Every structure is written in structure tokens, then in C-alpha cells.
Amino acid sequence: MRIACRISPGRKRLSKMAVTSDIVTEVRLRVQRARSVAVLTGAGVSAESGVPTFRGANGLWRSYRAEQLATPQAFARDPVLVWRWYDWRRQRIAACCPNPAHAALAALERTVPDFLLITQNVDGLHRQAGSTALVELHGNLWRVRCTAEETVQDLPAVLIDTIPPCCACGALQRPDVVWFGEPLSEAAVTRASQAAERCEVMLVVGTSLLVHPAAALPALAKRRGAYLVEVNVEPTPVTAYADAAFQQPAGIVLPRLMHSC
Predict the structure, then answer these.
(1) Of the residues 15, 110, 239, 250, which has the fewest C-beta atoms closer than 10 A?
(2) Residues with catalytic annotation?
């Protein structure tokens, strides 16, 4: 299958097939030779596994929008309603499996001395695929956090016995995710930014790059001299300055780019 790609300004233009073959080979070699690689992933990777994106047509639950439920105010007002929505989401995600893009990134981690996968996804599929050098910027649906003690623990059961769940201390537990209006973990952002600053290659996969601070990471990596590769089905703000931009599903592109890595 041919992969549509864009060559950055100044690159010699060849036939479409030759350009495709040439840039795939170059990206593969860049990744193979790099001692430091950072990867940023978004909802597009999860969508290929069937995970519904709550901003899309499949994202509505009852008569609510995500912006009405994923907030501290909504949880304070009606924690049962919020947890029923998250219970629904967890059940939908539990039926999904990691796809070839997840597997390719997990395999890449094992070959690069300094590797970090930075994801905006909360579905846990990267971990399920075997990724361990991972920063989950927006949290993880399969963890809960005590609203009183701030302690975090796994909640792997697909069906929750009690909604809303409670901590041993008696306080309510909330999903360990970042809600609208909440700041991201400072430690997570710092770790992601440092990886972007020092990487030799950065892959930006399946993200529209509309949400900050994640949206600023590719530009930061590029300014520090990284070779920037984008994989997304549609153009994004990064497309114009990426060294290589592939407009095809990640599950098709990444296994090909990672071949023999």
C-alpha cells in the first residue's frame, strides 16, 4: 500500500512512488540511528482500535457533552452521573485492543537508549501494548484518585461494584484523569518537555495538536534540532514544518517506518 507523504521544503522532488520509498527509508534510518526518540500520540491512534472520540459523532452520551461531565464542578454536583459516564467509557474501551501502531511503538522503545512516549490518551492501550517509558499527560481511566488523600490506585475491573467508588478512608474516588479547567501534572509536563528538548527524532502521531501544552512539544523539538515526523490522517499545524508528514492511519505507517528497528 502506498503511503501519501510530504517532503519538507528544499528536498529533491521525484516521482510520487520514488519520493514515498525515499522518505520512508530516510525516516527509518533516522530512527534506527537515533539514541534519543520522543513520541507524542493522540486520539487518532486510539480511534484505530475502535475507541470512540468524545468530540466525534460517537462521543455523545445520553444528552450530555464531555465538556459538561468532565469537570470538577460536574463531579461536585452529581458524582453518580459523572461516574456512570466514565463507567460507560471504561466498558467501551475494555472491548478494544492495541492496534499495530501501539505495538510498533512498544517495540521501538526496546531499541532506543533514550525513549519516551508522551500520550494525550487516557485509555491505557499503550500500556496494554507493552509501553513502559510513558507519560500519560491527561491521566488514565483505569486509575482512581481519592478526593481527600489524593492517593492513586488502579481500578482494573471493567464493571464497578459501587458507583461512585469510595476510598478506604470513606471519601469519594474520582477518575485519575485531567478534567476541563484543571492543570496537567507539572512533573508530567516537565518530563515531556525535557524529552522534546533532547530528542534527535520526534514522532507526532494521531493528534490534531489543538490542546496545549502538548501542542507546543513538536515545535520545541524542532527548535532544538530534532528530525520531526508526523503521522496523521489530516493536515495539522505541524504539517507545514515537519521533515516528513504521512497522511495515512498510524497502524499502516508506523509498522513500515519501524521495520527492522
Answers:
(1) 15
(2) 138
* Intervals of CATH 3.40.50.1220 along the chain: 1-50+98-138+184-261
Q: What is the CATH number of domain 52-95+140-177?
A: 3.30.1600.10
What is the C-alpha radius of gyration for the chain, rounded to an integer number of angstroms?
19
d(CA 6, CA 192): 26
- CATH number, span 1-50+98-138+184-261: 3.40.50.1220
Model-level pTM greater than 0.85?
A: yes
Extract the runs of DSSP E, i.e. beta strands, from the chain: 5-7, 36-41, 114-119, 134-136, 139-146, 152-154, 173-177, 201-205, 227-231, 244-246
- Please report the DSSP string for 116-143 in residue order: EEEE---S-HHHHHT--SEEETTEEEEE
Cα separation, 222 vs 227, in Å, equals 7
Residue type (1 letter), 37: V
